[in-house]
Amino acid sequence: MASNFFLRNTVFVAGITLALAAKFAMAESTTGTVTHGIAMYGDPQLPATYTSLPYANPDAPKGGMVVFGNTGGFDTLNPFAQKGTTPWQLRFWAAESLMGRNQDEPFALYGLLAETIKVPEDRSWVEFTLRAEAKFSDGSPVTVEDVIWSFETLGTEGHARYRRFWENGIETIEQTGPRSVRLTFTNDNREYALIAGLRPILKKSQWDGKSFADSGLSEAPITSAAYVISDFEAGRFITLKRNPDYWGTDIPFRRGTQNFDEMRIDLYGDINVMFEAFKSGALSTYREYNANVWETGYDFPRYLNGDVVKSEIPHGRPSGMTGFGLNTRNAALSDWRVREALMLAFNFEYINDTVTGGRQERISSYFSNSILGLQPGPATGKVAELLEPFTTDLVPGVLDGYSLPKSDGTERNRKNLRKAAKLLTDAGWHIADGTLQNGKGKPLNLHVLLRQGDNEMQSVMDIYAQSLERLGIRLIQDVVDNAQYVERESAYDFDLIHLRRDLSLSPGNEQRLYWGSAGVDQPGSRNLMGVNSPAADAMINAMLNARSTEDFNAATRALDRVLTAGRYVLPIWQYDVARIAHNKDLTYPDTLPLYGDRATYFMPEVWWSKAAE
Q1: What is the DSSP letter of 36?
Q2: What is the reported pTM?
Q3: Going by C-beta distance under 8 Å and a sequence separation of 6 or more, which residues neighbour residue 161?
């Protein structure tokens, strides 16, 4: 399909500087100004008169069915509770929030359940006014009481990702009118108004006399979303159907979206079996993450005869971080020299050539491929000023510059292994009886936690294990089912873990969840590596409190330095384009969003069935 993505992406990225530098024009006084949308910096790009999202086809037909595949299983229908596991898509498909995010801007929200938003210039509070027509799937209206209950319940009984905002961000939440609710914040954080706008809203009366936290498979939360769960069988499938009486079909934010009548998720224990199911026609679409397979592995009959089409969706967001997190809660891994040794032993060039045919470039830092990424060489200017108070605590490379080790591409990787061995010796480890041991004679055995069916990452770890063996280190692969994986991940019961952190052009409070020190001892946090860095905490605070482009970029680049040189993750390849194979009946708009294919916001959000035409 033709696309003006690259031209528009250049304009958007260049425009970020102007947007961040602009004075916040959302409000004229401390009383606040009512508006249709809100941006992290400056004004939202879409006017109050917009008729649809820029990457949606407002005339897309409704109808048809799409079938996805997941690996693993599920034991709850409540994606908002801490307990249990759901298909990951439910969090996005089965609920709505007060506002919705435009994927064509760095960070801007527009009215969804709320028809308007009101904030003062300092954003010390936010007020939402609900749409009169907003209804839950059972036909009952969405009320202010539901909103207040949802914030409180998610903040106290919900998943860990919702709790910090309730505990540390919200001072009060109160009804201010028949359809209006105001949240007052505890501190100066301009992103809080946007975070509030994205909280899912659930039906209070559904849970009267019931346990929200322990709902399991007994019932799914009633929400205002277009899709409702119509059928399921734990371990096999779950089906959602579009509510024919969905309240929001004609509001601007929803026009041209949620076009399928039915969406089904079939479950598989192994990704290879799932791919075979797609090849046979049991699945409608398949996301391919291996560039080599994308180029060489699609020679099956359905593709060759044209029943399957391959689409590539580019994006303009940062690389984010994909790789293997090192759990620094482990005493051995708390030493940066040990982590650097493990980085040196991770022979990426050979691994990449073996697994992807060398077709995918390596991630170089957390915000690489964007204006927010660290700059090569020593820290200078405002970046250096931000980091200077932490000089004595920073590991080598943060201030003077750091880049990932490169091997010669051969299997033996001798030069890097020699450097790794020296670092391990400096850190107090020595070889005895063929194993690497510390001064107390304890061997360095490392456990990597992997999901059952993640064969590609198991192949990566097979190669890595051979490399570590040459250093006297034993790497054990703990391949577990989905339920065990979630349990062990929440308890940090691993030394290495496969992780992915998708990062945006407008990083905010989620950075505290990913690498803030508050998550080190909190079960179920997103800080899997156990990053406990005063410098990282300070850079996140500086980023959140920035009032200019220069300050925001400097703080983010400084954070990128702290994380990258901290050697917390063994980075692998980046996903600079989404590779989606799909039935020829499925299609999407010519105009692509800045963020490309992200979670479910592009596929299936704005796709449709040609047969429905």
Answers
A1: S
A2: 0.82
A3: 513, 526
Write down the pLDDT at residue 383: 98
pLDDT, tens digit, for every residue of 377-418?
999 999 999 999 999 999 999 999 999 999 999 999 999 999
Could you say which residues of the chain have pLDDT below 50? 1-29
CA 183 to chain centre: 26
Q: Are 118 and 127 in contact (CB under 8 A)?
A: yes
Would you state the pLDDT for residue 2?
41
Contact residues for 319 (Cβ-Cβ < 8 A; gap 6+):
363, 364, 365, 366, 367, 368, 369, 370, 373, 503, 574, 576
Q: Between β-strands 170-177 and 569-571, what pairing exists: parallel, antiparallel or unpaired?
A: unpaired
Specify the pLDDT at position 41.
83
Partners of 72 in the beta sheet?
none
Rounded-to-10 torsion of CA 363, 365, 367, 373: -120
Q: Is 281:305 a contact under the CB 8 Å cutoff?
A: no
pLDDT of residue 30: 54
The 3-state secondary structure of 178-227 reads CCEEEEEECCCCCCHHHHHHCCECECHHHHCCCCCCCCCCCCCCCECCCE
The Cα 363–Cα 368 span in angstroms is 7
Strands (E), 131-197: 170-177, 180-185
Tokens encoding 456 = 């590609």
Three-class HEC string of 376-423: CCCCCHHHHHHHHHHHHHCCCCCCCCCCCCCCCCCCCCHHHHHHHHHH
The letter for the amino acid at 265 is I
Q: What are phi and psi of 316, to 5 degrees?
A: -115, 20
Percent of the chain residues past pLDDT 70, beyond the cut = 95
For 219-248, the pLDDT digits (tens) are: 999 999 999 999 999 989 999 999 999 999
Q: Is the peptide bond before 604 cis (omega within 30 degrees of 0)?
A: yes
